[in-house]
Design a protein that fits this description.
There is one protein chain. By secondary structure, the protein is of the alpha/beta class. It is built from nine helices and ten strands. The strands form two sheets. A six-stranded mixed beta sheet has the order 6-7-8-3-9-10, with helices on both faces. Strands 2-1-4-5 form a four-stranded antiparallel beta sheet, covered by helices on one side. A hairpin with a 2-residue loop joins strand 4 and strand 5. The protein is globular and about 55 Å long.
Length: 263
């Protein structure tokens, strides 16, 4: 007897979102298996960030299904929807640290929230913050500093520590190497891979950085004008055989991808 295929951690079907006359997502179908690190590439305005925001519940799509662990978060009762979305940790492109909070308070933010389950005392949260700071290569003493006192690379590390502090089952990375030099970008990618593997999390990253995409990703997909035009192993990004992917990954001006006027 054939065993049924395992349920994807994230399953998306027929996802559409328009802003006025502009169709940003145009019928997205995507499966992200449990424990997979999935990278989404595409030019500016291709719909990558809108797709992430739809999954996070920050934007409501016009049509479609978004399932997490088999639960359609667009139609589930509020409490069940919140439980699924609480599984997600996020590393934002610019770090998005709170300037008025110390580093350790930034890292422990979700652990100290009134809705946290279990909610930790400040002393317990500080211990956990120190643990995850160590996992991203930062000494506990950094916890007493403020974001303005950190370099860009250190802010990314703190952002990653915050994303993993409450051990989420799903991690999202929004342009994780933007603004970093190539060496620090490789360091951050290595930390991301290590954290994902250690926790067994499912990850989705959006990026323009092809070196980063190959370091982070198991699987990859490309968005163009709101549609997924290719999916495959991240290791084949530079030699996919798809003319759109090849033009994008090699930075060629000539090809099927044309520049759109932004309105």
């Amino acid at each position: 007897m054939t065993e049924p295929a395992s349920l994807p951690k994230i399953r998306i079907r027929g996802l559409r979102k328009a802003f006025g006359a502009k169709q940003v997502l145009d019928g997205i179908d995507l499966d992200v298996p449990q424990g997979t690190s999935f990278v989404i590439i595409g030019g500016s305005g291709s719909g990558k960030s809108v797709l992430l925001r739809c999954i996070l519940g920050l934007i409501t799509p016009d049509e479609g299904i978004i399932e997490i662990d088999g639960v359609d978060v667009l139609r589930a009762p509020q409490r069940e929807r919140e439980e699924r979305l609480e599984e997600i940790g996020m590393l934002f492109q610019n770090g998005a640290l709170f300037d008025s909070l110390s580093v350790w308070e930034n890292v422990a933010f979700a652990l100290l929230a009134p809705t946290a389950s279990p909610r930790l005392s400040r002393a317990q949260a500080r211990v956990r913050a120190n643990e995850v700071l160590a996992q991203v290569g930062l000494d506990a003493s950094v916890g007493d500093l403020y974001p303005s006192e950190l370099s860009g690379g250190m802010q990314k590390r703190v952002g990653l520590a915050r994303a993993i502090a409450d051990r989420p089952e799903i991690l999202f990375f929004d342009e994780p190497t933007t603004g970093l030099d190539p060496i620090m970008g490789a360091v951050i990618d290595g930390l991301i891979v290590d954290c994902v593997k250690r926790m067994g999390s499912t990850a989705i990253a959006i990026t323009h950085d092809m070196a980063s995409a190959q370091r982070i990703g198991d699987q990859a997909a490309m968005l163009y004008r709101g549609k997924l035009v290719w999916q495959g192993p991240a290791s084949s990004l530079m030699h996919s055989g798809n003319p759109m992917v090849d033009q994008f990954t090699h930075g060629r001006r000539e090809g099927p991808i044309t520049m759109e006027l932004r309105r």
